[in-house]
Structure to design on (191 residues):
């Protein structure tokens, strides 16, 4: 059972761009959930039930999984995305979910603060995928945290066999990202 969330707690929706059971990115989200400061609660949405985008499906009524995802986005104060890098870009799984969320009416990403991080087995820790994700945020009218950049390179060395993030610098920078996201979200709410 999750702990009750009081009115002042920032509700963050975590989305991983990988469906893999032993995904480093899903593991990074779990680490973020554990590292979140008091006053922030991170819920993680599982994208595995989201169908491939097809406008004809929408015309018949939104698929239930998509409605749940859109509702979860709408009800959150901020979004936290953990993305793998596939072929220097974001994975289709993540793009597909974003495409569903982006459709009118009342596209729920509009005006949302968002932070991102990424883990890859390569040397660049998803930097190219994250640059592309930032472009999507412009069209979606989201408000990304710029710093710090969380680029978990050579992820196979940073997580243990159980998927726990054991690399202290990575844990520290995720904590800093969450602090940044909290400050940014509160600034935007005051506006
Ligand atoms: C990869 N991988 C990869 N890594 C990278 O640093 N840059 C890249 O462009 C790619 N491209 C790529 C394409 C495809 C189709 C796959 C399946 C993989 C490797 C990637 O970093 C690695 O599989 C990660 O483990 C994926 O993240 P999860 O699933 O562990 O979260």
């Amino acid at each position: 059972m999750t702990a009750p969330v009081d009115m002042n707690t920032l509700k963050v929706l975590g989305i991983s761009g990988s469906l893999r059971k032993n995904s480093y990115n899903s593991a990074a989200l779990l680490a973020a959930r554990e590292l979140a400061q008091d006053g922030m609660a991170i819920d993680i949405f599982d994208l595995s039930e989201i169908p491939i985008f097809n406008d004809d499906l929408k015309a018949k009524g939104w698929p239930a999984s998509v409605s749940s995802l859109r509702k979860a986005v709408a009800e959150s104060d901020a979004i936290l995305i953990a993305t793998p890098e596939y072929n220097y870009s974001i994975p289709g799984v993540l793009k597909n979910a974003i495409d569903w969320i982006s459709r009118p009416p009342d596209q729920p990403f509009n005006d949302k603060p968002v932070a991102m991080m990424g883990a890859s087995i390569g040397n660049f820790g998803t930097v190219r995928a994250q640059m592309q994700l930032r472009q999507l945020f412009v069209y979606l009218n989201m408000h990304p945290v710029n710093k710090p950049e969380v680029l978990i390179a050579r992820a196979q060395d940073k997580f243990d066999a159980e998927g726990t993030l054991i690399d202290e610098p990575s844990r520290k920078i995720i904590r800093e990202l969450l602090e940044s996201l909290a400050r940014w979200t509160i600034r935007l709410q005051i506006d």
